[in-house]
Amino acid sequence: MKNMIKFILKKTIRMVSLLIALCIISFLLISYSPIDPIQAYVGADMMRVGPEQRDKIAEYWGLDQSPLEQFVQWGSRVLQGDLGTSMIYRRPVADIISEKFLNSIILMSLAWLLSGIIGFIIGSIAAMKKDTWIDRTIKWYCYTLASTPTFWIGLLFLMIFAAWLDWFPIGLGVPAGVIAEDVTIGDRIKHLILPTLTLSMIGIANIALHTRQKLIDILSSDYVLFAKARGEKGFVLFWRHGLRNVALPAITLQFAAFSELFGGAVIAETVFSYPGLGQATVEAGLRGDVPLLLGIVIFSAIFVFIGNLVADLIYRLVDPRIREGKFL
Amino acid sequence: MLEVNHLSISFLQYEKGLKQQQLKVIKDLSVSVHSGEILAVVGSSGSGKSLLAHAILGILPTNATTEGTIYFDGVKLTPEKKEEFRGKEISFVPQSVNFLDPLMRVGTQVRNAARGASTSAQRKAFERLRLAKDVEQKFPFQLSGGMARRVLASTAMVSGAKLIIADEPTPGMDPTVIKEALKYFRELADSGCTVLMITHDIGAALEIADKIAVFYAGTTVESAMVNDFSGDGRLLRHPYSKALWRALPQNDFLPIPGSQPLPYANLPGCLFEPRCAFATTECRQDEPKPREIRNGIVRCIHAT
Amino acid sequence: MNFLRIMTQKKSLIPKLNLRQRTLIAMIVSAIILLSVIFAGILLGDERIATNLENRNLAPSLDHPFGTDWLGRDMFTRTMKGLTLSIAVGLIAAAASSLIAVVLGILAATAGKIIDSIISWLVDLFLSVPHLVTLILIAFALGGGMKGVIIGLALTHWPSLCRVIRAEVMQLRSTEYVQISRKLGKKRWWIVTKHMIPHLIPQFFVGLILLFPHAILHEAAITFVGMGLSPHHPAIGIILSESMRYLSTGMWWLAFFPGLCLLIVVRSFDIIGENLRMLIDPHRAHE
Ligand SMILES: Nc1ncnc2c1ncn2[C@@H]1O[C@H](COP(=O)(O)OP(=O)(O)OP(=O)(O)O)[C@@H](O)[C@H]1O
Ligand code: SF4
Ligand SMILES: [Mg+2]
């Protein structure tokens, strides 16, 4: 237990150092951006804004100060947990992020589970049937999937299932023009299916190929050789020795893939106009919402960090070599 | 009984640029053991002892090709037969601790090898090899080398097989436990099993074995009766066996100069020729064929 | 390995193509595909992508294999030009990225513990945020456009290759001949140029080629969401994001062919890279 706490502490300190650097670099980058944040705030009414009003807005957002002063102000507020106010939504960044993330988390966790399960199963099948046509097909499919642009998969799904077969709506998290209270769960599910499928497609190839390779290594390991020598074979062999040894790395990998998951969500949400954090990222970037963009950068880093941390912890908790090794 | 005839094993390998190569590591190897007998296989490291064991069991890597025939109890061991016999008719004690599943408790692994009342059989075997009761709950990484070997040996004890192949079952164990394990193999043989024991420990082999096969560079250079290994080794037929015998601490303790040949193909004649004290020019010409001399088999043109 | 009989198998005895031949053929076919795309992109005239309202919204035909769009532009020409642009952007970005990777990888392995941990911290820093978010951030900082994409790609794709190079150099350093050279008092630089660089060059090229697919896919993605190349460029990301607006009209060819071609290009790079790696490091092919 003591080791565990020490481990988490060490990881967290590294994370904090990374986060601080990240804040400084992001802020520096953004402060040199030629994109005018005032325009982002004012939006389409830019023509009607006179120089005085401009100055007022700049003063209000602190844009008249030097980048360093701005950074100190922003930084000290971030330390107090205040990420500032979004320029396009005109509400606190923290609120926007948590609201959007709630939408995204459904999408992401479903896709994450789906890709993990499908990837693990087809990867295992490929390894068990190594060098047969089944294996070759799965391998070919995964390599092709890994080379396929995510947004194109999304577009194909839209073309086939929404435009052509008319099974699903063409986008949006909820039907357009319906008040929030009237949105049924059925509607939500309907709008979730295609983005979820698209997003899960990204993860499948990675986890499947990894599982396949790992399981092949395991199947040619000495202990599987010995299990075979004891007469174990086929599914029993996989169940007793393969699954046990391959599940842990696969789960770990899946947690370590939070980064790709988030990136994929950006794309999938854009294609399907799904009102999640990914779409908010794109909007913040496109429309110059500096506080929101910075907030999302920080948030995504924490998200990725948690995934990696959980991956490490699972290893420590589950693997007896680490778990019980300490007490010997 | 077990009969291995003219076994050859080669590995398909790829070099830089993906050029294919066949590496022949075992060539024209023959051994035989009757039921009720123990055959000890001795020979230096890399002479192909483990590969023979794996070939009998049919657990060679997929890039290996084998030639030759293996018969067990009159049945030709095809890949299908091997798969059917593994764990039932044939039991295997592997060479290293890596052969235990790192994530499975060792007691379970032994029980998986047993037929019938597995838990009691496992406990009995552990007791006999002086493994404490809580060992069954441990993972392989928690065992010492000697304990792990005892666990491996117990898999053979619980299997109830008719052919036991043990690949160096004793290193790392205490002398008393070694005695116990060896005694157990002897009992198995006496009850009608066929035992093939691979070992570095000629002393141990002499204690329990009936016959000894000496391996060198992927082939059998001599098959002899245990009694031939005695005195100054004059009963032995092959210069390598003699040298091996004399290299033992209790004898002259003379190491054999040189080392096992590496590029097999470059030696047209006898494989031992570069290190042989009795070599003549003829030895370099053709590979010596196995000959039967004084109830043993030897691969040396000058053997008498 | 103790004694090994080496017996090169006669090729004529094997009815099937062996691994080496299959590998070479896959690489050649992929290279031909890529070269034809590039030539098509360069040679096809601009007049085919000029607005031509008479030929609007045509489904694929012999004249327009990929159909035409709402301005009557030939989609085949647009796709080829877009792919050529993507390959060019990917090439520049991947080259810059692998250069960073090599320099940092060698530094990490040779310049002492402190530098090594700084570089490993940098690697962590660049992996701590999803690539796409970093790309958006950098594109935003540089005001969008080609420059933003290339710099963003170059800055985000080096960490994995950097780790490979570092490990490779570490291993080379411990090999015998490098150790001997060092004992003989050779200068560090001499060892690096004489012993390390020749071993690293193949690794570098394989890494470079395998970076392409990622770079191109990320370029297309960031352009697709609107933070990348500007709409004036004939980029694949632009073509696909435009096609979104016409999805419900049933003009499937607008999105289908460009995306498929992008897939083929990316896959071709992947095949070349993977097979090249197998040729260099056949250990992976043993089973
Ligand atoms: N998978 C393989 N591919 C190529 N060569 C192999 C392979 N497995 C074993 N060999 C070679 O076959 C030869 C015999 O190996 P084997 O393991 O049978 O030796 P051994 O007699 O059991 O040695 P030890 O006493 O050290 O266990 C060695 O030279 C080894 O290098
Ligand atoms: S054949 Fe010749 S070289 Fe070989 S062991 Fe006999 S005497 Fe020695
Ligand atoms: Mg061995």
From TrEMBL, chain A:
Could you tell me the keywords of this UniProt record? Answer: Cell membrane, Membrane, Transmembrane, Transmembrane helix, Transport
Q: What residues does the ABC transmembrane type-1 domain cover?
A: 101-315
Keyword Transmembrane helix attributed? yes
Question: What InterPro entries does this protein's entry cite?
Answer: BPD_transp_1_N, MetI-like, MetI-like_sf
Membrane topology designation:
Multi-pass membrane protein
Compartment(s) where it occurs, according to its Swiss-Prot or TrEMBL record:
Cell membrane
Which BP terms does GO give this entry?
Answer: transmembrane transport
Annotated SUPFAM superfamilies: MetI-like (SSF161098)
State the superkingdom.
Bacteria
In which broad location class does this protein mainly occur, judging by the first location in its UniProt entry? membrane
Give TM segment ranges.
Answer: 105-128, 140-165, 192-209, 246-272, 292-318
Q: Cellular component GO terms, alphabetically?
A: plasma membrane
Q: What family does the database annotate?
A: Belongs to the binding-protein-dependent transport system permease family.
What is this protein called in UniProt?
ABC transporter permease
Organism, as annotated: Anaerobacillus arseniciselenatis
Automatic annotation (TrEMBL), chain B:
Where is each ABC transporter domain found?
A: 4-242
Q: Which SMART domains match?
A: AAA
SUPFAM superfamilies named among the record's database cross-references: P-loop containing nucleoside triphosphate hydrolases
Q: Which GO terms describe its biological process?
A: peptide transport
Describe its membrane topology.
Answer: Peripheral membrane protein
Q: What is the lineage of its organism?
A: Bacteria, Bacillati, Bacillota, Bacilli, Bacillales
Q: Which domain of life is it from?
A: Bacteria
According to its UniProt record, the EC number is 7.2.2.11
The terms under GO molecular function for this entry are: ABC-type nickel transporter activity; ATP binding; ATP hydrolysis activity
Return the protein name: Nickel import system ATP-binding protein NikD
From TrEMBL, chain C:
Task: Please state every residue range assigned to the domain named ABC transmembrane type-1.
Answer: 83-273
Query: Which InterPro entries does its entry note?
Result: BP-dependent_transpt_permease, MetI-like, MetI-like_sf
As for subcellular location, the record says: Cell membrane
Instruction: Look up and give the membrane topology term.
Output: Multi-pass membrane protein
Q: Which UniProt keywords apply?
A: Cell membrane, Membrane, Transmembrane, Transmembrane helix, Transport
> Superkingdom of the source?
Bacteria
Q: Which family does the record claim for this protein?
A: Belongs to the binding-protein-dependent transport system permease family.
The protein depicted here goes by the name: Peptide ABC transporter permease
Species per Swiss-Prot/TrEMBL record = Anaerobacillus arseniciselenatis
**Lineage of origin:** Bacteria, Bacillati, Bacillota, Bacilli, Bacillales
